[in-house]
């Protein structure tokens, strides 16, 4: 099995999904048959004991922690949960924009529909403000639209509304503020209907940390 490979790397294993768990199970079978094969399991927020215990009973395992430069991050919590969290997220983004001088703002919502609503609300409330640009970030964007996310825009603050694609898949330089809705939308398999369906729910503690770190990559964040 996998005869042409000597090392297999699985990254972002904290994103516990059916397909990734199946891959880990298959790799365990491969390792039993190929003693020379090496497996590297990686994550920035991994539960080391969970994955170590899964493999250690059958194989020789080692853990390696690599330090990364993360700038200080200030956590600010809302007092009460707002039922209309999309509107609350827009309000918080505007508050940051109007009271803080530096850094782009990343707002993480559940899906494209919420992003469209948030951008419409933002642009309406900041209709006469020329110091910012509101941008969407999700899987349906064109290459040109995605490129704009990473461009440096002199004298313009980027206010980016994203799905959880910004949680771990990409890093946007310049982001100093993250507004986290604490919600997600993900595809799961419905065994009864035999189709993939979208499930809406709250994010895990690991996801909270992943989103939080988007603000402290290159400078002090909030």
UniProtKB/TrEMBL annotation:
Residues 89-222 form the Helicase C-terminal domain. CDD domains: SF2_C_RHA (cd18791). It comes from the Eukaryota. GO terms for molecular function: ATP binding; helicase activity; hydrolase activity; RNA binding. The keyword Secreted does not apply. PROSITE patterns: HELICASE_CTER (PS51194). Keywords: ATP-binding, Helicase, Hydrolase, Nucleotide-binding. This is Helicase C-terminal domain-containing protein. It comes from Rotaria sordida.
């Amino acid at each position: 099995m996998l005869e042409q490979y000597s090392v297999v790397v699985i990254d972002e294993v904290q994103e516990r999904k059916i397909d990734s768990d199946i891959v880990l199970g298959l790799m365990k079978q491969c390792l039993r048959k190929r003693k020379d094969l090496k497996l590297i399991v990686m994550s920035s927020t991994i539960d080391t004991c969970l994955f170590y215990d899964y493999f250690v009973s059958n194989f020789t395992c080692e853990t390696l922690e690599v330090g990364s430069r993360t700038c200080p991050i200030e956590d600010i919590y809302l007092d009460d949960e707002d039922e209309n969290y999309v509107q609350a997220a827009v309000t918080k983004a505007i508050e940051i924009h109007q009271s803080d001088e530096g850094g782009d703002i990343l707002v993480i919502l559940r899906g494209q529909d919420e992003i469209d609503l948030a951008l419409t609300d933002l642009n309406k409330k900041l209709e006469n403000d020329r110091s910012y640009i509101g941008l969407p970030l999700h899987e349906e964007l064109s290459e040109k639209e995605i490129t704009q996310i990473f461009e440096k825009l002199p004298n313009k603050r980027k206010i980016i509304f994203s799905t959880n694609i910004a949680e771990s898949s990409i890093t946007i330089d310049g982001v100093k503020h993250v507004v986290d809705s604490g919600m997600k939308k993900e595809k799961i398999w419905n065994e009864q209907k035999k189709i993939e369906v979208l499930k809406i729910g709250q994010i895990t503690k690991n996801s909270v940390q992943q989103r939080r770190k988007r603000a402290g990559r290159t400078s002090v964040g909030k």
